[in-house]
Design a protein that fits this description.
Helix content: over 70%
Shape: rod-shaped
Radius of gyration: 19 Å
């Protein structure tokens, strides 16, 4: 375990970018409309957004978990 707590910012930013891509894809499909030749671009956009949102969420949760374990370790070392 590292000495410094990890930042949750990269995971939050990555998840936010993924959610924005998902929203752009869904708005494009449902509100704006699309031609059939644009469908592969929209599918890639939505898939990339879903992947980035999932990876960002995993990074965020991993950093939070490591920070909690770091605080527990520091607390336990302080009691000893």
């Amino acid at each position: 375990m590292s000495a410094d707590p990890r930042s949750t910012t990269p995971g939050a930013v990555l998840a936010s970018v993924g959610v924005v891509l998902l929203l752009v894809g869904f708005v494009w499909m449902s509100v704006i409309g699309y031609y059939p030749d644009q469908l592969p671009v929209i599918i890639v956009l939505v898939a990339a957004g879903a992947l980035l949102a999932w990876l960002g969420q995993r990074m965020y949760q991993s950093a939070k978990r490591e920070n909690a374990l770091h605080r527990i370790k520091q607390r336990d070392l302080g009691k000893a």
